[in-house]
Write a structure and sequence with these properties.
There is one protein chain. The chain contains 8 helices and 7 strands; from the N terminus they run E-H-E-H-E-H-E-H-E-H-E-H-H-H-E. It is α/β, with parallel strands linked by helices and about 260 residues long. The chain has a single domain, classed as 3-Layer(aba) Sandwich (Rossmann fold). Strands 3-2-1-4-5-6-7 form a 7-stranded parallel β-sheet, sandwiched between helices. Strand 5, helix 5 and strand 6 form a beta-alpha-beta unit. It is globular.
Amino acid sequence: MKPDMDEPRLKDKVALVTGAAGGLGRSICELLAKDGAAVVLADIDPIALRNRTSEFDREGIRTALQVECDVSSPDSVRSMMDEVSKTCGRLDILVNNAGGSLHIPRDLEQIGESDWDKVIGVNLKGTFLCCQAAVPLLKQTGAGSIVNMASIAGRTGSPVSSVAYAAAKGGIIALTRRIAVEVAKDNIRANAVAPGFIFSGPRLEKLWESQTEEQKRMVLNSIPLGRHGTPDDVASAVLFLASSRSAWMTGAIIDVNGGRFIG
């Protein structure tokens, strides 16, 4: 008998999502919770984290814990994992969603060393630190799933991304593949999602609205499916990789970009 694809697959699972207070983080947490997971919300912004938690409480979305964490800090990451272990007793899923372009200059000649360190630190180093700290907990459950957040910028040249962001996301792709090989013996899977142009918050919406109609048309014409993506488009891919629906997948990079990059 084929399994019911609508049946919750994450019942009794604990899922940790970094960058949970952002627009994309919200969609990821919501879909994981609806599929049965007890979700741990982690973010560097304590106010945004409290607001997100209150919002979920009002909407009846199940959460297990809220943790303030700077993913670029080893001490902060270790403290977060200790809190998850102490409060939840287990960890089944890690979603490394924290990251972004972090408002640094886009052009090569304008990027300072501190800009580079900031983007690499949060995106690439943060993903590494969280994976490293989570694996011992994932081993204890006898299985686990790591989902990292890459980007189309790490797959192909992007005119709107900085070299620091592209390097960080390309590094996450390589990191994911190497981790997948190393932890497979422990029945832990590691995959990544590489989104394209996603409306994931006010900043991107404002950037889009600042474009001329011709510029908007050029962007949409470059996407075979003819539209920009939504946070739910990305969250659906994360849910797939987090659950047993992708049980025989590891080291994979899922491109969620409407066909803008196919490779």
